[in-house]
């Protein structure tokens, strides 16, 4: 029986969940995997707060050093979150010859390449299954299951909070603000929900997927990111009337040797499986040259799914390193695209909602400007008036260049006949 000593840094929501699973399922895991996982140290800066699991006081510490420099510890599990001091914990853990497990997408988005390069150079493992998609084993699928594939496309719903809000708006016709308040009441959104609703969290996760899938190092700031704050219940309703759902998608798409990386609300056909992923659930779609199309679905966050992923990493690390052998290349990636595609050069179809005064000639003015920028209209509907004298005009366009669309919308929004900023949502087939 191989025994593995684990030191956990960060005894918060997930840290406590992981300790609980390792304690309550110790015998189960031992029998199933042949590995005895022993929680040797638990570190947190706050040892007073009551946790949902009891641990022997002797293993609790406030000192990160007591984990990193303890020669008995084989695996350091970083669960403090954020970039600092998490980055120092992970790098120093590796330098001390320990394998590392982390759930920290913010850290991996910022410094993943540096961390993986160091781990690969030292022949050590970094497990990060919980950083994307919570309990969904997408990282393992990309690292191992799909290793023989050249990937063409990875996209998905990878932020449960935004998906919960959009689902509530779709199902109950609620405003964004009301749906967000319900998400906060139910514990699905933080008191400060900015990172989730702005698309920032999805961008962190997309940079992890871009590195594994395409070998591209892109920090969140390199990824075009738009959140869901401007989407109104009426947009969801109008999209539905045209046979679409609106979802916050994170997209990594190969296009003629370049890689598109973007996060934004997206219209997807109602018949697509991803359209039917609702509530806090996540779904990740992967297309490879050998496996074709695959869809992963499951809980993208929460204590139990995330702990499941962290524990699976601990067991995987222990198995890879059985007998003390050095790992080969723990995080496999090769760069197989030339560069990131500029957002301006991306071509998609668009849904646009204009809010204009109710006067003859308005439509002609709007379509004239669109034509000037080579944007052709696929359909146009004038919706019932929303408020006195303001009428929503909803258009679907054929494929157009992002650069042209941005210029056209700017020009249209500067017209006196426009009463509010236009809302534009990209369409993916
Ligand atoms: N929650 C989820 O559903 C979920 C899902 C997937 C991934 N993750 C990731 O998992 C990680 C942990 O998330 P969480 O929700 O468990 O966060 P959390 O509840 O805030 O837990 C973090 C813990 O680390 C402690 N800590 C912070 N800095 C420390 C330091 N310098 N030394 C020792 N302890 C320190 C915190 O103490 P204080 O509270 O006193 O600051 C807190 O107890 C994050 O990277 C997150 O992105 C979370």
Notes on the structure:
With 429 residues, the chain is an alpha/beta fold. Helices cover 35% and strands 27% of the residues. It is built from 14 helices and 18 strands. Strands 7, 8, 9, 10, 11, 12, 13, 14, 15, 16, 17 and 18 form a 12-stranded mixed beta sheet that branches. Strand 11 and strand 12 (292-299) form a beta hairpin. Bound molecules: NADP nicotinamide-adenine-dinucleotide phosphate. The site of NADP nicotinamide-adenine-dinucleotide phosphate has 24 residues, from helix 1.
Low-confidence stretches: none
Helix vs. strand class: alpha/beta
List the ligand species: NADP nicotinamide-adenine-dinucleotide phosphate
Rounded to the nearest angstrom, the radius of gyration is: 24 Å
**Straight-line distance between termini:** 51 Å
Question: How much beta, percentage-wise?
Answer: 25-35%
Q: How would you classify the quaternary structure?
A: single chain
How many strands?
Answer: 18
The coarse silhouette is elongated
- Please give the count of helices: 14
- Report the helical percentage: 25-40%
Arithmetic mean pLDDT: 95
Main sheet attributes: strand count, strand direction, barrel closure: 12 strands, mixed
């Amino acid at each position: 029986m191989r025994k593995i000593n684990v030191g956990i840094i960060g005894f918060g929501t997930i840290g406590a969940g992981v300790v609980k699973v390792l304690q309550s399922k110790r015998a189960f895991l031992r029998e199933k995997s042949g590995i005895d996982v022993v929680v040797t140290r638990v570190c947190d800066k706050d040892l007073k707060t009551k946790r949902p699991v009891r641990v022997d006081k002797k293993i609790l510490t406030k000192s990160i050093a007591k984990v990193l420099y303890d020669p008995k510890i084989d695996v350091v599990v970083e669960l403090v979150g954020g970039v600092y001091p998490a980055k120092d914990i992970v790098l120093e853990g590796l330098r001390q010859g320990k394998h590392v497990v982390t759930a920290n997408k913010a850290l991996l988005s910022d410094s993943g390449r540096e961390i993986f390069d160091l781990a690969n150079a030292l022949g050590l493992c970094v497990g990060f299954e919980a950083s994307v998609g919570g309990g969904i084993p997408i990282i393992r699928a990309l690292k191992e299951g799909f290793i023989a594939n050249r990937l063409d496309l990875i996209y998905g719903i990878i932020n449960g909070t935004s998906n919960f809000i959009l689902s509530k708006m779709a199902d109950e016709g609620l405003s964004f603000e009301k749906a967000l308040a319900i998400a906060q009441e139910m514990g699905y959104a933080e008191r400060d929900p900015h990172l989730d609703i702005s698309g920032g969290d999805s961008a962190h996760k997309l940079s992890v997927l871009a590195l594994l899938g395409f070998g591209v190092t892109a920090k969140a700031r390199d990824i075009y990111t738009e959140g869901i704050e401007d989407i109104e219940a009426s947009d969801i309703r109008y999209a539905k009337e045209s046979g679409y759902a609106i979802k916050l998608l994170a997209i990594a798409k190969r296009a003629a040797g370049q890689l598109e990386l973007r996060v934004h609300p997206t219209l997807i056909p109602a018949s697509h499986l991803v359209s039917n992923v609702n509530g806090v659930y996540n779904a990740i779609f992967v297309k490879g040259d050998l496996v074709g199309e695959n869809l992963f679905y499951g809980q993208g966050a929460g204590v139990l799914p995330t702990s499941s992923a962290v524990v699976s990493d601990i067991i995987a690390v222990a198995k890879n390193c059985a007998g003390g052998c050095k790992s080969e290349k723990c995080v496999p990636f090769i760069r197989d695209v030339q560069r990131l595609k500029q957002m301006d050069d991306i071509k998609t179809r668009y849904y646009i909602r204009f809010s204009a005064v109710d006067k003859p000639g308005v439509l002609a003015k709007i379509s004239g400007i669109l034509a000037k920028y080579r944007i052709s209209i696929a359909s146009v509907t004038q919706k019932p008036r929303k408020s006195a004298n303001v009428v929503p005009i909803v258009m679907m366009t054929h494929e157009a260049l992002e650069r042209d669309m941005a210029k056209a919308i700017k020009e249209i929004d500067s017209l006196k006949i426009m009463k509010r900023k236009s809302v534009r949502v990209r369409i993916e087939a």
